[in-house]
Specification:
Layout (H helix, E strand, L loop, with lengths): L4 E2 L3 E3 L4 E6 L2 E7 L5 H28 L4 H14 L9 H47 L5 H19 L6 H53 L5 H17 L5 H48 L6 H17 L5 H25 L8 H22 L3 H22 L3
Helix pairs in contact: 1-2, 1-3, 2-3, 3-4, 3-5, 5-6, 5-7, 7-8, 7-9, 8-9, 10-11
C-alpha cells in the first residue's frame, strides 16, 4: 500500500491503519492489509451500516408497541455504549445522537409500561379474588352440570389473567393463596357431586328392583279372569310404579315397556269380553226402551190403575235382563223420572185439606171472638183494654194464616 485512501468519515494510512473521524477527533478502528484500500474502507463502512440497521430495528420495535420497551431500552443502551469502541467507519456521532434519543423515548415508555404492568397486575389480583370468591360460592351448588362447566371456564379465565402483569412477591403469595381457595372449592364441589351421583345410583338401583317386582306381578296378572279385583290391583300397581322413583333410563324404559304390555294385555282381554257380552245384551235394550216408553205414557190422573200398570212394567223391566253399560244409565234415568212423577202425584192426592184441620177451626173461632171483644172495648171507651185485645187478635190472625197455608 503506497498511498492514503480517504472518505467523508475515515481513512486508511499507507501502513494499513484504518481511522474514523468523530467530534472528539480521529481514532484507529482497525487495520487493512488485504489489498485495495478502497475495499478496506468499504468493509468498515459496511460494519457501520450494520450498526445503523440494528438501530433502525430497535426504533421500529419501540414504535410498534410490541413487546417490553425495557428490552428495547437495554439493547439501545448496549449499542450506544459500544459506539466509542466500534470498529466501523461512518457518522458514529450522528448514530449516537439517534440512539440517545431512542433511549430517552424507550425510558419514558418503559416507565409507563411498568406502571401499566403494575396496574394490570393489581387488576389481575382483584379479578382472581372475585374468581376465588365465586368458586367458594359454587362449592355448595347442586346445579351439577352447569357448575362443573363453570369451574372449567373459571380455570381458563384464571389462566388468561396469569400473564396480565409481572406480580410482586407479595402479590404472588396472594395469588397462590387465591388459587388454593379455588382448588379447595372445586374439590369440595367434586366431592359433593360424586356423593350425589353415588346416592342417585343407589336410589336408581332400589327403584329398579321395585319396578322389576311390579313388572313380575303385572305379568302374572295379565292372564287373570278375575276382572274387577285384577283391574283394581293393576291400577294400584300403577300408583306404586309412579312412587317407586326412576331407575337408569335404559333399564327404566325397558321395564316400563314390559309393565305396560302386561297391563294392556289384561285390559284388552277384559274389553274384548265386555264387547262380546254387550253384543249379547243389545237385544235387551230395545225391550227396556219399549218399557220406558210405555211407562212415560201412563196417565197420572187415574192413579190407582196407573200404579198397577207401573208395577207390571217394573216386573217386566227386571225380567228383561241386563243391558250394555253405555245404555243402562239413560234408561234407568228415564224410568226413575216416571216413578218420581207418579209418587209426587200420589202424595198430592192424599195430602189433607188445611181448611178442615181442628186447629184451623179453633183459631178461626178465637179470631172471631177477639174481633167482637175489640169492638166492645172500643164502644165502651176502654182504650187500653181494646189495645190489649187487638194485639192478641194480631197474633191469632198470624197463626191462622200459617195453619191455613200448611201443605
Amino acid at each position: 500500500m503506497t498511498a492514503m485512501h480517504t472518505s467523508d468519515w475515515g481513512r486508511i494510512e499507507p501502513d494499513g491503519t484504518v481511522y474514523v473521524r468523530t467530534r472528539a477527533g480521529e481514532r484507529p478502528v482497525g487495520e487493512w492489509h488485504a489489498g485495495d484500500p478502497a475495499a478496506g474502507l468499504a468493509y468498515y463502512e459496511r460494519r457501520y451500516g450494520a450498526l445503523v440497521t440494528e438501530a433502525g430495528l430497535l426504533e421500529r420495535r419501540l414504535a410498534s408497541g410490541a413487546g417490553d420497551p425495557r428490552d428495547v431500552l437495554a439493547s439501545t443502551r448496549r449499542l450506544l455504549e459500544s459506539l466509542p469502541s466500534a470498529a466501523a467507519v461512518g457518522d458514529l456521532d450522528g448514530l449516537a445522537d439517534r440512539l440517545a434519543a431512542l433511549a430517552a423515548d424507550a425510558t419514558e415508555r418503559a416507565e409507563q409500561f411498568g406502571h401499566d404492568r403494575a396496574a394490570a397486575a393489581e387488576r389481575a389480583v382483584a379479578a382472581k379474588e372475585a374468581l376465588a370468591a365465586e368458586a367458594e360460592a359454587l362449592a355448595q351448588s347442586e346445579s351439577w352440570k352447569a357448575t362443573g362447566d363453570r369451574f372449567r371456564a373459571l380455570a381458563q379465565e384464571w389462566q388468561a389473567l396469569t400473564g396480565a402483569g409481572r406480580l410482586r412477591e407479595a402479590d404472588r403469595r396472594v395469588e397462590a393463596t387465591q388459587w388454593r381457595r379455588v382448588v379447595a372449592a372445586r374439590e369440595e364441589f367434586g366431592r359433593r357431586r360424586g356423593a350425589h351421583f353415588a346416592a342417585l345410583e343407589q336410589e336408581r338401583g332400589i327403584a329398579r328392583k321395585r319396578k322389576e317386582a311390579l313388572v313380575r306381578t303385572a305379568e302374572e296378572l295379565a292372564e287373570s279372569t278375575d276382572w274387577a279385583p285384577t283391574a283394581d290391583r293393576l291400577k294400584g300397581l300403577m300408583t306404586e310404579w309412579k312412587a317407586a322413583g326412576r331407575a337408569a333410563k335404559p333399564a327404566d324404559d325397558a321395564l316400563w315397556q314390559r309393565f305396560r304390555a302386561a297391563s294392556d294385555a289384561f285390559f284388552a282381554r277384559r274389553s274384548a269380553l265386555h264387547a262380546e257380552r254387550d253384543s249379547a245384551l243389545r237385544d235387551n235394550v230395545a225391550v227396556k226402551e219399549a218399557l220406558v216408553a210405555e211407562a212415560e205414557a201412563l196417565d197420572p190422573a187415574d192413579l190407582t190403575a196407573t200404579q198397577g200398570r207401573l208395577r207390571d212394567i217394573q216386573d217386566r223391566w227386571e225380567a228383561a235382563g241386563e243391558v250394555p253399560r253405555e245404555a243402562l244409565a239413560g234408561l234407568e234415568r228415564r224410568m226413575a223420572t216416571v216413578e218420581r212423577r207418579l209418587r209426587e202425584r200420589a202424595q198430592e192426592r192424599w195430602r189433607p185439606d188445611p181448611a178442615s184441620s181442628p186447629l184451623v177451626t179453633r183459631l178461626r173461632e178465637s179470631v172471631a171472638k177477639l174481633e167482637r171483644r175489640v169492638e166492645r172495648e172500643r164502644a165502651a171507651g176502654r182504650v187500653a183494654a181494646a189495645a190489649e185485645a187487638e194485639a192478641t187478635l194480631t197474633s191469632q190472625r198470624e197463626w191462622l194464616a200459617q195453619a191455613e197455608n200448611v201443605k
